[in-house]
């Protein structure tokens, strides 16, 4: 590619390479601004062929310009690497022909660009609806994969299987340890320290909390598509029983059946659509709505189940703390996505253990684990009967400390 017509530079080492695109190799003149940069067009074509590239207006070494980044995993095989490079070359040649067939300065025609993007989206969704395998889209002009391999995740399709060494190394990641240990620990604590028998719905709720930790840790260790789906499935397996317990509290058997069948139908629809079409928006919206329903119902039930004003105040503080954990965790998750490169550079600069403070994805897991435990514990308390004494001492750390602090600040 280094000698290609519209390639200005190829930089990198090891398995991380940046390819820069220019309109004129001699003067390094960039393309005129247009509706679709050259790098984005190459990325779209490569994605249609089954390989994920990463376009950008600059690279980590400080060079601005129209780029695509090639970054296969460290354990990629030689055959798999040849497939990735072959797809990159084919995608470049395709866009080069498109530019040469257009008007002046190599800018991509807006109408053709949007038509091409629309065809890619339609073909992608039709293919996803017909099959959930999402393997390579084979083309006769590129070498086929050396061996069939499953998709790793919905955002990294061409990555190969992880090996055992990666599974061991990832156990030290701040993304995995907080999620797994804290959620499992909270589940075990809730089952052991309760004031009443942990059977039936209560057992399901705490096991659901532990299941989120186990499935999320499995996804982070493997990055497979099926483990990603299990991670997202476990989120709904946690919230759906909680909603059922809140909506059917002291309800008639008929209402319980109606609510149960409705929630089961909604749960099945969301997960089938999500897994079959890799449609993230429906999954995220359903989970957000579930969190909202749980939070509002808990706050509404506190005055009904806790006649003592002091106990009401404590329970409201606990509920608000859980909501704050979810909201702040979601905020740092968004910041982690928006400022990933700067956070990565910062972690490399400061080193461990201070770098953990900048691992915002890890903090997202910590905060949502606390919020999930608060939701399960409060639902379990509220539906178990009237609450006549302060239950704060039965809750796990840091909930008692945070609830007292919030109550003190409010006073």
Automatic annotation (TrEMBL):
It comes from the Eukaryota. Its main location: membrane. One of its GO terms (cellular component) is endoplasmic reticulum membrane. InterPro entries: ACER, PyrdxlP-dep_Trfase, PyrdxlP-dep_Trfase_small. The keyword Cell wall biogenesis/degradation does not apply. Keywords: Hydrolase, Membrane, Metal-binding, Transmembrane, Transmembrane helix, Zinc. GO terms for molecular function: hydrolase activity, acting on carbon-nitrogen (but not peptide) bonds, in linear amides; metal ion binding. Coiled coil: none annotated. The chain crosses the membrane at residues 258-276, 282-300, 321-344, 364-383. GO terms for biological process: ceramide biosynthetic process; ceramide catabolic process. Its cofactor is Zn(2+). Zn(2+) binds at residues 220, 361, 365. It is found in: Membrane. It is a multi-pass membrane protein. It holds the Pfam family Ceramidase. Gene3D superfamilies: Aspartate Aminotransferase, domain 1. Belongs to the alkaline ceramidase family. This is Uncharacterized protein. The lineage of its organism: Eukaryota, Fungi, Dikarya, Ascomycota, Pezizomycotina.
């Amino acid at each position: 590619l280094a000698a290609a017509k519209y390639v200005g530079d190829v930089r990198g080492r090891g398995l991380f390479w940046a390819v820069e695109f220019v309109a004129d190799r001699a003067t390094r003149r960039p393309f005129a601004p247009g509706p679709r940069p050259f790098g984005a067009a190459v990325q779209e074509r490569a994605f249609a062929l089954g390989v994920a590239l990463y376009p950008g207006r600059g690279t980590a070494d400080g060079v601005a310009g129209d780029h695509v980044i090639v970054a296969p995993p460290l354990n990629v095989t030689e055959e798999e690497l040849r497939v990735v490079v072959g797809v990159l070359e084919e995608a470049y040649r395709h866009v080069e022909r498109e530019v040469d067939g257009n008007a002046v300065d190599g800018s991509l025609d807006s109408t053709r660009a949007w038509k091409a993007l629309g065809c890619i989206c339609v073909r992608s969704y039709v293919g996803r609806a017909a099959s959930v395998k999402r393997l390579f889209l084979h083309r006769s002009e590129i070498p086929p994969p050396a061996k069939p391999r499953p998709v790793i995740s919905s955002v990294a399709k061409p990555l190969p299987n992880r090996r055992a060494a990666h599974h061991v190394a990832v156990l030290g990641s701040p993304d995995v340890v907080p999620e797994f240990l804290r959620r499992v620990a909270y589940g075990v604590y809730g089952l052991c320290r309760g004031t009443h028998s942990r059977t039936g719905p209560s057992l399901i709720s705490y096991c659901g909390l532990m299941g989120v930790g186990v499935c999320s840790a499995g996804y982070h260790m493997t990055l497979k598509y099926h483990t990603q789906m299990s991670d997202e499935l476990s989120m709904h397996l946690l919230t759906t029983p909680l909603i059922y317990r809140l909506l059917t509290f002291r309800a008639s058997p008929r209402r319980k059946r109606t609510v149960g069948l409705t929630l089961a139908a909604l749960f099945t629809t969301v997960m089938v659509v999500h897994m079959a079409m890799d449609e993230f928006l429906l999954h995220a919206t359903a989970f957000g709505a579930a969190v909202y329903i749980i939070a509002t119902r808990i706050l509404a039930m506190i005055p009904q189940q806790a006649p003592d004003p002091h106990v009401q105040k404590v329970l409201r503080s606990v509920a608000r703390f859980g909501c704050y954990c979810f909201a702040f965790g979601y905020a740092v998750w968004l910041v982690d996505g928006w400022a990933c490169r700067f956070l990565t550079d910062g972690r490399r600069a400061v080193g461990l253990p201070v770098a953990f403070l900048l691992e915002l994805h890890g903090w997202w897991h910590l905060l949502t684990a606390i919020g999930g435990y608060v939701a399960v514990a409060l639902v379990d308390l509220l539906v178990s009967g009237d609450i006549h004494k302060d239950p704060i001492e039965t809750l796990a750390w840091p909930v008692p400390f945070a609830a007292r602090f919030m109550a003190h600040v409010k006073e």
